[in-house]
Amino acid sequence: xxxxxxxxxxxxxxxxxxxxxxxxxxxxxxxxxxxxxxxxxxxxxxxxxxxxxxxxxxxxxxxxxxxxxxxxxxxxxxxxxxxxxxxxxxxxxxxxxxxxxxxxxxxxxxxxxxxxxxxxxxxxxxxxxxxxxxxxxxxxxxxxxxxxxxxxxxxxxxxxxxxxxxxxxxxxxxxxxxxxxxxxxxxxxxxxxxxxxxxxxxxxxxxxxxxxxxxxxxxxxxxxxxxxxxxxxxxxxxxxxxxxxxxxxxxxxxxxxxxxxxxxxxxxxxxxxxxxxxxxxxxxxxxxxxxxxxxxxxxxxxxxxxxxxxxxxxxxxxxxxxxxxxxxxxxxxxxxxxxxxxxxxxxxxxxxxxxxxxxxxxxxxxxxxxxxxxxxxxxxxxxxxxxxxxxxxxxxxxxxxxxxxxxxxxxxxxxxxxxxxxxxxxxxxxxxxxxxxxxxxxxxxxxxxxxxxxxxxxxxxxxxxxxxxxxxxxxxxxxxxxxxxxxxxxxxxxxxxxxxxxxxxxxxxxxxxxxxxxxxxxxxxxxxxxxxxxxxxxxxxxxxxxxxxx
Amino acid sequence: xxxxxxxxxxxxxxxxxxxxxxxxxxxxxxxxxxxxxxxxxxxxxxxxxxxxxxxxxxxxxxxxxxxxxxxxxxxxxxxxxxxxxxxxxxxxxxxxxxxxxxxxxxxxxxxxxxxxxxxxxxxxxxxxxxxxxxxxxxxxxxxxxxxxxxxxxxxxxxxxxxxxxxxxxxxxxxxxxxxxxxxxxxxxxxxxxxxxxxxxxxxxxxxxxxxxxxxxxxxxxxxxxxxxxxxxxxxxxxxxxxxxxxxxxxxxxxxxxxxxxxxxxxxxxxxxxxxxxxxxxxxxxxxxxxxxxxxxxxxxxxxxxxxxxxxxxxx
Lengths: 550, 315
Fold this sequence. Notes:
Number of helices of chain B: 13
Oligomer: heterodimer
CATH class of the domain at 95-314 in chain B: Mainly Alpha
Number of domains of chain A: 3
Order of helices and strands of chain B: HHHHHHHHHHHHH
Mean pLDDT of chain B: 85
Number of helices of chain A: 16
Low-confidence stretches of chain B: none
Shape of chain A: globular
CATH superfamily of the largest domain in chain A: Dipeptide-binding Protein, Domain 3
CATH architecture of the largest domain in chain A: Roll
Strand content of chain B: under 5%
CATH topology of the domain at 95-314 in chain B: MetI-like fold
Helix content of chain B: over 70%
Largest sheet of chain A: 11 strands, mixed
Structural class of chain A: alpha+beta
CATH class of the largest domain in chain A: Alpha Beta
Radius of gyration of chain A: 26 Å
CATH topology of the largest domain in chain A: Dipeptide-binding Protein, domain 3
Distance between the termini of chain B: 13 Å
Shape of chain B: globular
Number of strands of chain B: 0
Mean pLDDT of chain A: 87
CATH architecture of the domain at 95-314 in chain B: Orthogonal Bundle
Number of strands of chain A: 19
């Protein structure tokens, strides 16, 4: 019996030691990409000690990036997905991009453009563009890409493009269905350009084998899990990667040789990977996790102001209790937007209209006019004056985003405080996306949305144009509002005066209410000194500021 | 014996078909729109409708079900992902080895620790060994896998720096996921082993063995353990199934690109074809595992083997 006890004890100890200790302490340094290794995946976890400095002096300069998702599809015109945004802007280039804060249209493959009529643009590309297979990019390829993107139908927003035809070898005429420059820029800016020759040579429509004009190429990839991007040699656009040469210089930068992306979906795991030196930067880290690094001198916390605002979309339809204007106004007065912002850490900029203050067509003077400043007494009075009789006000929110649920909870608290019986209805992200416009499911929807400017946002949500039932996404039709919004869809009436008129009408009627614009957090070691993103703030890894001696 | 194997294999057909129809039906009625996921929240109703038509999502239920059954069981094709447009069969084949390695390693850890723990507890019933073993088993059964995983990462990766917190390419990457995944199974094995051993230890033939003067080691390992292992093997099969299910959590926490992670990505993206394929694939795999478990009975217990032989002889 004693012997058995001894054997068992020894066996247990051996197993535990083997399992826990013998395999640990791997001091191997991260491998550089090696196409000959037969694998197609990155190895994100090769150092066990915190290594907040950087890579090896010799060999390729490498940055290891943790993202919440990695692209599952790298074809040029696939649908929107978070994972694609993380890498796609280093793999493909569009003709142009529109800078949201300034509204400036910046050429990428486009050398210049000319607006030849209200809705027609002549876009001229550089004459020295080559893709990764050394195919020369011409106007024919631009037209091919535009037509293919429309044909595949995966990108929402291309509806504004009417046609594209060749003017000369490097100039394309693009006819829009809209007169607005921002719609031209946002639509055309979403189309990645590839050569027809490379696309047709690809066995799978470039779903796994992208060939493009961008400064990086995909050298290893495990769909949805990891990816390695390597800087192209003899890149055609290298000389444009200079801020003094081109406004969109960052689209051409190759300041790092290799970028390794690893999906880490859990924010806490992302933080631990950063602390253990497994990664160099964690992108789009949650605020709670980012705050852990703010007072730590070994890390850089990159706070990037976004144009996404936390909005309360009111269901103004006849079947909702919020069809009552006074009740909507009461809700706006009842909410202390600053308190909501503080509840989420106090980051971001306050809104003074329906939409972000960061948009180019926002008027800074609206801040001084006041935007439903918190007034509990006024809210209570408006509730009394309204037809509200204690009905449940349903707040629809996506449970996938803790910031949004916090917004919903604080808003609920304020509404209960003035006697409005608010109830939170959380939905998982996919169900939320599928049901967000179902007027039977909500009275208030907490949401964030990406748009080019206020006019774009207002028209998307409050215009009934193009809706079969004649009602907008607020589930109502208002003739005055429609007239004001129509003004913002034509070049000659898209004026500050008309924008202001629309702002005042929307504000007065409280069709929707914006709280504050969010901030994105990227946390890095000292190796990454500066985060540079596209106009939509997605990572452009070649343009980041690196400290190779850190 | 072979007739039994054949019979079990034939039984797998209705089981797998049933799983296929069930999962297809559940996903058919689940709210969420793949077209919306692909096009984003700003897509117009017209764009959404066009995409639904392209994907065949607007066809009636029976048309879609029939098409799916034909693709899977006649063409042996799980189709393509709505999101990535890649062959799901290829993806499953690429990911399966990682999931299998994780589950097998977890199973080995669970058995190597759980069985000795259970034997030891039973042999020393009522002692401190017994109490400690059962406390460990209780913790294992009670603590959720994702929490165990987080604790292990905090201790071994963050505090001690012994092991990497995420990844999958090196052996060391699998240590923490295996322990986390094994912990619950280990506890179940230990509890089952203890219970089985206690039953056997008090049997007459064990008393006889002791009376004949055999050493305690021989009594336990040669006479008691083989008979007590039969229910443990049964539990091992279901434990393996649980471990397969737990890979959804483990692979997400440790960023391992296996089938569990693939499935959870599919769920989040409403990529129905991926979810269906993963569930069917795991169902087939689990059925095979349970068949192997049944066959193992005969290897462990000659009486069961004799049963098969007798049945054949009667015929």
